[in-house]
């Protein structure tokens, strides 16, 4: 697979929806992840990311304008020991709770499927990062309808062992704007991971569509120690 520029990929798509990036920093020392949300409706845009323990959650920017909390209020990031879970919905909790009971990432997601938001049937995208004894691997998953048919759920998991420095993978919910919104297709895109946490955060935020972007989370985790740095950018608080 040809490695592409994440900046160019984001800039060329007005509505990738929600997206997860996982990879390894160019110096090889950090496990890297990013999660962003976008919105077309006032309800979707009325959100911010806030820190919640070692993870984050979404919250209404203006609670008085919150219309329907289902599918938009959830914890995108949670930490379970040496594992960091990143998803686009409340399946974060499912993965956390079932892996805490010794089930696998895939087994946990077997209990879930795409979102019930007809006619889009938005895919559930998930990622998990595992750091142990100086080693690092990650996996990504997508649960999607079969070409818009909600009677069939297609389940894909992609696992990456000992990822190469300066590389990562990007998965998102939609191929672009549309009605209904077209679900992501294919395997996660191979992208370059460059710079420190601040420059990487700025690159992603600057290349997300100005009208539709809502919030961004980025974390760099030291592979040897597990120590991490986090950045959060919220359009509603810029």
Task: Describe what is shown at a glance.
By secondary structure, the protein is mainly beta.
Query: Which secondary-structure class do the elements indicate?
Result: mainly beta
* CATH class placement: Alpha Beta
In percent, how much strand structure appears in the residues?
35-45%
Tally of individual helices:
5
Domain count: the total is: 1
Q: Taking all residues together, what is the mean pLDDT?
A: 97
Q: Looking at the structure, what is the overall shape?
A: globular
Report on the architecture of this protein.
Strand 7 (124-132) and strand 8 (135-146) form a beta hairpin. The protein starts with 5 loop residues before the first helix and ends with a strand. The longest helix is centred in the last third of the chain and has 11 residues, at 197-207. It has a single domain (6-232), classed as Glutamine Phosphoribosylpyrophosphate, subunit 1, domain 1. It is built from 5 helices and 13 strands. The protein is mainly beta and 238 residues long. A 6-stranded antiparallel sheet has the order 11-10-1-2-12-13, covered by helices on one side. The radius of gyration is 16 Å and the shape is globular. It has helices at residues 6-11, 42-45, 91-99, 105-109, 197-207; strands at residues 19-24, 30-38, 47-52, 55-60, 77-80, 83-87, 124-132, 135-146, 149-161, 167-172, 189-192, 213-222, 228-234.
